[in-house]
Please model this.
Amino acid sequence: MKRLVLGLAATLVASPALAQTTIRSCDREVTFEEPPKAAVSNDVNLTEMMLVLGLSDRMVGYTGISGWKTLDEEMREGVAELPELAEKYPGREVLIGADADFFFAGWNYGMKVGGEVTPETLAPFGIEVYELTESCIHIGDKPKVSMDDMYNDLLNLGRIFGVEDTAYDLVAAYKLELDRITSTLGADEEPPRVFVYDSGEDKPFTAGRYAMPTALIEAAGGVNVLDEFEKSWARIDWETVVEKNPEVVVIVNYGNVTAEQKRNFMKNNPALAGIDAVRNDRFVTLDYVEATPGPRNIRAVKTLADAFWGD
Model:
C-alpha cells in the first residue's frame, strides 16, 4: 500500500493551478488567488499529508514535531531538507520570519483558541490558514469524526496547491485498501469494546466522539467505549473506564513515556485489575502519527483489525 501511495505521489504531481480556489476550512471560506509557495505545516501527521502530496518543494519548514518526539525513521528522510522552525507550537513571529504564505495547522494542533497564532492574527501578514478538519469541533459544531475527515483534508490540500489529481488518486487508493481490509471482518460478531489510552496516570487522556481513533476503531469493526463522550481528545476519570469495562486498550505511543510503561501502569494498577482488557492482556499500540488524522490511518485500521479479530 505504501509503495502504491508513494508511487502515485511521485508520478502524479500536477503543475500549480492558476485559477482562484475557494475551500471550506472549519467555519470559514478561504479563497486562494494562487497556490501557496512558502507553506509551513504543524505536527507530524499534518506534515506527512503535505509530503505524501509531493508538496515539500512548496514548503519553507515545519513546526511542532521534535518537541513531542513524534518523528520516526520513516518520516525523517521526507523532512530532511526542511528546517524545523519551532519544536512545539510556533509563535506568530516564527511564521512571519520564515516568510510563510500558508500555515496548515489545527486547533490544538499548532493553534489554540484565543492564542497568538490563529487565522485572524496571521491574515494581516498574508499568511492563509487551512485548519485540520478533525480539530474544527473546538470552534463549532461538526459531525462525529469519520475517515472522511482525513480524506477531506487531502482533497482540500490538493485543491489549494493545484494537485487535485494526486489527491484524488491517493484518496481512491486509501479507500480501496480500506475496503480490502474491512471486507474480511466478521459482520455478524459483536464489536469489541475499546478504550484509547493516550497518557496520564491520575486521569487518562483519551479519545472521545470527535477524535480520530474513534473512526479508526469503527473502521476496524470495534466500538470506542467513550463514543458518547462529547469531546475530541480530553481527560476522563478512571472510574468511568472501569465502568465501561473495555475488552481492548489502544495505547498511543509517543513522547517520553513508552507504550510499555503505559501498559505496565494499567496492568499494575489494582483499581484497573478487573477490566477485561487488563485481565486478558489485550493491548495494541498505535504510534501518534497513526492515531491522528493522516496518511498512516489506513495502516492503523489494519493493525486494529488484526488485534480485534486475529486468533
